[in-house]
Amino acid sequence: MLKLSLTSYRSNEIYRWVNSFSQNGAFIVPDTIAANLLVRILCAAEADGGDRRVMLATVGLDETQLRNPLNRFAAPLALRFFKMLEQHFKDPAINLRIGERASMQNFSDLGYATRLESNLAAVIEANVRIQMLRQSMFRTIFEPTGRPPFLLWECHPDFANAYAPLIEFSVATYARLSRQILGEAPILRAVHFQHKARFQISRYEAVFGCPVEFSKPETRLEIAARQVFRPSALANPDLYHAASVRFEQPAQWMAQGKHHLAHSYFYLSSEIDKTPPTLDRMAKSFGMSERTLRRKLVEECTPFRNLLDLVRQDLCKLYLMEDKRPLGEIALLLGYSDLSAFSRAYKRWYGTAPSLTK
């Protein structure tokens, strides 16, 4: 029975664009964390009552650096970031609480579509697959054939205690993701941490709902097999396929040497629901002038306005396939100031009003 479930979840399609885009990992700088992950953590901290301006200033970051989702920051900054959170909230366990909150909300997040996979095992596999785009400070491994299935966090013993806040956050996010996919509390058999306990063990156990042990040979989270392979109510293979295929074009651009075009596509995809998409703001996040970026995009055969239109169309198709958001929300997620502006664009793309196809 386990073999049948395993066969159904394994797929060559699982975010296959990641290797192409990252040039099989060569594009990813070791021991770094990506802006898209820092933004998720920051937004979760802000939702928990944190002061965004103060938090950024304490670490020495500004919004411009965070707007490009593919920007990478060295490990010391990531560790300062988590230390700042503990001081800002006066709580050494804030990383666990943030892990519970740092959920993906829409298709502007690189990993949002992973939740559409067939079961929790497939969702975890897809998230592990894109991990290198989020951070390369440690490696997460998923063993679905374990008895019970388990996740491992590989970290050199010399760094285990220093990296503890980030690893605790990561373990908490997988526990939270499991609960979201299952629609109920995950049955966690055990949680082991390689590092020493940083506060009362009872606080860890309250979060994970199972025994938590420390100073173990490896960091490990075990999940009940009957939950891991149970079909997911969120599964949507057609939408998942469409969301995965969407990234194949910028991955091809990257392989063709059109780096500015590929990076701009990801930038716009990530930022379009947060701030007005402008060429000037995008150029600043890339560390170049607006004039230079405009020229580069023209040289790579897709001017800014054409690229922005493409990103909006691509995301619009996904939201309409998702079929759970009102048109007004979709308009805002695509960066339009109001529904009428979105309706005009939609009619230009497809020759009909969006209300007739929704």
Judging from the principal axes of the Cα atoms, what is the shape? globular
Computed structural class: alpha+beta
Mean pLDDT: 91
Q: Strand arrangement, largest sheet?
A: 3-4-7-5-6
**How many runs of DSSP E, i.e. beta strands?**
7
> How can the largest sheet be summarized?
5 strands, mixed
The number of distinct structural domains comes to 2
- Helicity range: 40-55%
Number of helices: 20
Q: Which segments are poorly predicted (pLDDT under 50) over 5 or more consecutive residues?
A: 1-12
The rounded Rg comes to: 21 Å
What does this entry look like structurally?
This protein has 358 residues and is α+β, with helices and mostly antiparallel strands. It folds into 2 domains: 2-138 and 156-184, no CATH class; 247-356, Homeodomain-like (Arc Repressor Mutant, subunit A). Helices cover 54% and strands 8% of the residues. The protein contains 20 helices and 7 strands. The chain has helices spanning 2-9, 17-21, 35-47, 52-59, 63-67, 75-89, 94-101, 120-129, 131-134, 164-182, 201-208, 225-228, 237-246, 248-255, 259-271, 279-286, 290-299, 304-322, 327-333, 339-350; strands at 32-34, 72-74, 139-143, 150-154, 188-192, 212-213, 219-223. Strand 3 and strand 4 (150-154) form a beta hairpin. Helix 7 (94-101) packs parallel to helix 10 and helix 13 (237-246) runs antiparallel to helix 18 (304-322). The two termini are 40 Å apart.
Could you give the topology of this structure?
Layout: H1 2-9, H2 17-21, E1 32-34, H3 35-47, H4 52-59, H5 63-67, E2 72-74, H6 75-89, H7 94-101, H8 120-129, H9 131-134, E3 139-143, E4 150-154, H10 164-182, E5 188-192, H11 201-208, E6 212-213, E7 219-223, H12 225-228, H13 237-246, H14 248-255, H15 259-271, H16 279-286, H17 290-299, H18 304-322, H19 327-333, H20 339-350
Parallel strand pairs: 5-6
Antiparallel strand pairs: 1-2, 3-4, 4-7, 5-7
Helix pairs in contact: 7-10, 13-18, 14-15, 15-18, 16-17, 19-20
